[in-house]
Amino acid sequence: MSQADALSIARLKDAAPLFSALGDATRLALLVSLCSAGPLTVTHLSGRFAVSRQAITKHLEVLAEARLVSSVRRGRERVWAFEPGRVEDARQYLERLSREWDVALGRLKAFVEA
Amino acid sequence: MATSTTDSIMKEIQLRAPQARVWKALSDAQEFGAWFGMKLEGAFVPGQPVFGRITFPGYEHIRLEMKVESMVPETLFSYRWHPYPMDLARDYAQEPMTLVEFRLKAVDGGTLLKVVETGFDRLPADRRDEAFRMNEGGWKQQMLQIERYVAS
Fold first, then answer.
1. CA-based angle B115:B96:B57, to the nearest 5?
2. Domain assignment of residue B1, yes or no
3. Nearest residue in chain B measured CA to CA from A97
4. Is the ipTM of this complex over 0.90?
5. Which chain A positions have a beta carbon within 8 Å of B112's beta carbon?
6. pLDDT in tens, A13-68
7. How close does chain B come to A19, measured CA to CA in Å?
8. A103 contacts B132? CB cut-off 8 A
9. Which of A57, B2, B17, B42 could form a disulfide with B21 if both were Cys (CB 3.0 to 4.6 A apart)?
10. A94 CB near a chain B CB, below 8 Å?
11. In this predicted structure, what is the pLDDT of residue A90?
């Protein structure tokens, strides 16, 4: 195994909570908002969604646990920001499984075309 | 409901073989095992599980279960399984399975095969780590097999 591979595995080993965090339509929409609009407060976000501020905060906390977003306190409110590195991890994970299928299907192709 | 992009893997491949040939390679458990790299004990029957062992050197201790869902001749073959159940100490039976669907369609010069595996979002978080770790090894092994195949 190359060193680059080993590094990437170490990085992906803690990628797991990502998948449950991303598996919700509201959380994905929140992520997209933070991604396109930049850092926002819950007050700003609640103007864009038909859910309560409490619900938005809860969703953001789930996203934060998966390190998809981070927040900093500014006065009385928190400002939430998108963390792009984590989405890249999730994409890489499925990419690996996807390649596994490519190889298996390559063998099927050789098998039926022989 | 929208499906998240982390829940599924989709593949499409054109095979220069008649639909009936591809169907046999999928629906006949012995043939499936031959290209997939496992030895299956028994035939594929909708609603029934089939157990098998990986035949790649170094992975022979791995037992796999495939729970066949649908078999529509020359059209659809689907089953559920636990992807990469490599930890012998773990009881995978308690965990959700992913669903694998093979869809066949006759096209000019052969068969178009679509493969969709869904249900990754429901896997336990630590299971995904493991699936990834093991996948790395499995994938390397499969590359070696292919290299051997094209070189011979």
1. 65
2. no
3. B135
4. no
5. none
6. 555 677 778 888 888 888 888 877 788 999 989 888 888 999 999 999 999 988 78
7. 5
8. no
9. B17
10. yes
11. 58
> Could you tell me the domains of chain A?
3-113 (1.10.10.10)
Residue A98's CB: how many other CB atoms inside 10 A?
A: 15
Is A13–B121 a contact, with Cβ atoms under 8 angstroms apart? no
Place of tokens 């639909």: B19
Residues of B in contact with A23 (CB under 8 A): 4, 6-7, 121-122
Query: Which string of DSSP letters, residue by residue, matches A24-64?
Result: SHHHHHHHHHHHHH-SEEHHHHHTTSSS-HHHHHHHHHHHH
Question: pTM (2 decimals)?
Answer: 0.59
Furthest-apart CA pair in chain B: how many Å?
A: 48
Encode A61-88: b = buried (16+ Cβ within 10 Å), e = exposed: ebbbebbbbbbeeeeeebbbebbeebbe
Min Cα distance B16 → chain A (Å) is 6
- pLDDT for B46 beyond 80: yes
Expressed as residue numbers, the domain containing B116 is 8-151
Q: Which of the given ranges, A34-48, B39-53, B85-99, B126-140, has the highest pLDDT on average?
A: B39-53
Q: Do B126 and A96 touch (CB under 8 A)?
A: no
**Facing A106 at nearest CB: one of B21, B131, B146:** B146
Which one has a higher pLDDT value, B70 or A46?
Answer: B70
Task: Please say if the pLDDT value at position B140 is more than 70.
Answer: no
More reliable by pLDDT, B150 or A96: A96
Report the CATH number that the domain containing residue B37 is assigned in CATH.
Answer: 3.30.530.20
**Residue from B19, B23, B35 to probe the interface with A (highest A Cβ count within 10 Å):** B35
